[in-house]
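Input/output pair, single chain:
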Amino acid sequence: MEIRDIEIFLTLAEELHFGRTAARLHISQARVSQAISQQERRLGSPLFDRSNRRRTQLTPVGRQLRDDLRPVYAGLRDSLDRARMASRGVTARLRVGMLPLNVAALQPYWQTFRSRHPQWELQLRRAPFIGPFDRLRAGDLDVLIAWLPVEEPDLTVGPTLFTDPRVLAVSTDHELAGRSSIPLEALADFANAAAPDMPDYWEESYLPFHAPGGQTIERIEPVTNADELVSLVTTGEIVHPFPAHVTRYWSMPHLQWLPIPNMPALAYALVWHTESENDLTRALAQTVRDLGTTTFH
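Output:
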């Protein structure tokens, strides 16, 4: 199996969507299908279950291959990356995964870290909200910027970067559209998105399972990425709460944002795998502590 084919397989195993995999790797969807079909013929077994048109799933063989290939591919990729960095005088790289969308708004942290440590490379990437802690544990990320609380015994929670109030996303033709704000209780009257493979306490902190009055806040549609989420909101199938910073980055004609005054704000902090802590993670944490928590107006 060639390196590119391994990359295609592992990306599809993460995205579980042929179109998104092709877009992420900047190749055609036909190239993704071809690579997977070739791998399945060589192994004599399907790697993905495509029986459901709406969702692609790994087969047991696919899951085993994913788990076996991840460390092999990561090691090979890291070796090549270290060689490239060495040619530029860079001695190490810190990979930061972002759950929030406001990379640009946090620029003072990144600029300060880079000016203090020019020998290190800082890499910022969007992180999936499904299984993001798995990427820390697997070594695919060094630091994750995640909403709190994070109550994982093997993870360290570092300093907080910012705290954001909450807003509800609705379609412009939704019955709630046009209101100046919405109480948290109202979310129990409408369908919301389900988040598979997310710790219950963590999902609860983002979207409570029950409104203050005890009504169930119903989750109906499993969603694995932000694009699907926004699409379901704009078609009116669901409503969904977000941190307020998204309103500066997602300006869409069919989307409206309603403040939720009585919904607790989300605090976002640095999180890393305790056993993998190193000089780079400590340096980024110290940078955030020195600059303090960012306040958005």
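Residues 3-70 form a domain with the Arc Repressor Mutant, subunit A fold (CATH 1.10.10.10). The first strand starts at residue 48 and ends at 49.
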